[in-house]
Amino acid sequence: MNNGLRMNGLHRQSATLARATGRELVWGLRGVSREVARWRKQAEAIPDPELRAAALAALARKRGSIDGAALFWILPRRRNRDLLGVLVAYEVLADYLDCVSERGAGLGIENGRQLHLALVEAVEAGTPISDYYRYHCNGEDGGYARALVSRCRSGCEQLPSYQAVKPFLMRAAAQSGVLGLNHEPDPARREQALREWAKGQVVADQVPVPAEQVPALPGDQIPTLSNEQVWYERAAGSSAWVTVLAMLALAARPSRAVDEGTDNIEVARTYNAYTQWIAPAGAMLDSFADIAEDRASGDHSYVAHYPSMQVATERIGELVRQSRHEAQALPGGVRHSVVLSSMIAFFLSKDAARTPDLRASARELRRAGGPLVALLLPVLRLWRIAYGQRSA
What we know:
17 helices, mainly alpha, 0% strand
């Protein structure tokens, strides 16, 4: 019986993947390419050479992240060009700010926090735009950050369910402020700041949902560890801004005036699934694949907070398995499962994840991801070769 259910689920996911691939190849990739070309042209015109270099480097090195963000376009049943434009612009903005913050790490946490205000204001139309470079050494970006923020705002206002989703969207965007702490060069100060931030999120990042509104699924639930044990998972998940992308996708659904209570419960359940499980799983997989590079450069690594690679592999595997469970339980769960499987396969397809030191762990994580991940891995390795993104 369980094998039959699993095979049926895999068939549905494979069918959804085939439809999503068709949508991406026929409509999505061309749209993403147009959007990226537009932002590259504007980045090339940035007056300050350091900011220009950061913008162009982010576009070149993070093309995979941009295509990954655009994949959330498949969550609504109908194509929505405004959604695609917002997803691309938000990802480009986040990658750019991360790069600028990293290069200006010596300017301190206050600078990082100020820069990342843009990620909140990008989805809050109608509010004043801050001076994001207030504490930075140079803010002559030719209006690049402001243009990205404005593109996100105008796109959000065109999404039919934006107002209904906005409270959750703003909540998710506010959590991305943790990005301002990630590049603090002093490890002790960085860890203290991240711990304090995570402690403040213990209650704030969980939206109550009546238990009777959550359907049961086959399989055991994986208990959440204590807050002290998972502070770095909480911070890592918010650093990934995946929940923002999921909320934007929900905002693109047709507006419904029938049962707002039921609709809000669906949004809350999606918010919780991404915040508590899917975003941390993705962030930890990304950190896992980058661990050797981070060690060599001295950059902050979330995976390095685990006491050993064995513990890291076991815990990330738990996050992945529970993420699959949570994704399947959501309305439109097959589509969420395809997005999740694509994200897992994307990180495990990096060349670094196949090095001798990580090969055994990567194999365990691939198994945790399920059969669709195994199906996607060779496809994404070919994609990485085609786009020169083998280690990005």
